[in-house]
Write a structure and sequence with these properties.
Elements lengths: L4 H14 L1 H8 L4 H18 L10 H11 L7 H9 L3 H25 L13 H12 L5 H21 L8
Helix pairs in contact: 1-8, 3-4, 3-5, 3-6, 3-8, 5-8, 6-7, 6-8
């Protein structure tokens, strides 16, 4: 596929940001059930990919801390489980790592500030420099395009489930 990885995935990236769940996260005041649904989506995917990434990029333990701090549980989106179970090849795992590491690392600092009062350990880095180096390596791999697109689509589908299964008016943590 021609172009750079970020260019090839831009449309789905923007679709995730524009989704009601994504927009609620960006506002800094998502309904708690949506936030927990999102953390569950991340937990399921990171439980599959973390052991294939450098230690500095692991997020599973931090996501689990955030989930415990939220104090509620919601159903895990089926699409997140299906997607995590589909991650069989190095390309698939690296595509997911690119999408999630980029989201946590690049947009994460802004999101952490906006989500004041919400648990955001998964957006705090012990070694940001090492993780950024790893992300830059992934970013240059245009062969990850199809895998990254699958990840973005799975996130978008998970957001659809979160919104459908947790109808509510926005309320902050």
């Amino acid at each position: 596929m021609p172009g750079k990885l970020w260019e090839n995935t831009r449309e789905l990236h923007h679709a995730c940001e524009a989704h009601a769940v994504g927009a609620a996260m960006s506002s800094g005041e998502p309904p708690l059930t949506w936030y927990v649904g999102w953390l569950e989506t991340l937990r399921v995917i990171h439980s599959t990919i973390d052991n294939h990434m450098p230690r500095s990029a692991h997020r599973l333990n931090e996501i689990e801390k955030d989930l415990r701090a939220c104090g509620i549980s919601v159903s895990i989106p089926d699409t997140a489980i299906e997607y995590a179970n589909s991650l069989k090849t190095k390309l698939d795992i690296d595509g997911a790592a690119y999408v999630l590491t980029g989201a946590h690392l690049m947009g994460g600092e802004i999101m952490r500030r906006r989500l004041e009062g919400y648990p955001t350990e998964h957006l705090v880095w012990d070694d940001r420099k090492e993780t950024l180096s790893y992300l830059l390596e992934l970013r240059d791999r245009v062969e990850l395009t199809d895998s990254a697109i699958k990840c973005f689509q799975a996130l978008l589908d998970s957001m659809d489930e979160i919104e459908r299964d947790n109808p509510c008016s926005p309320q902050s943590f």
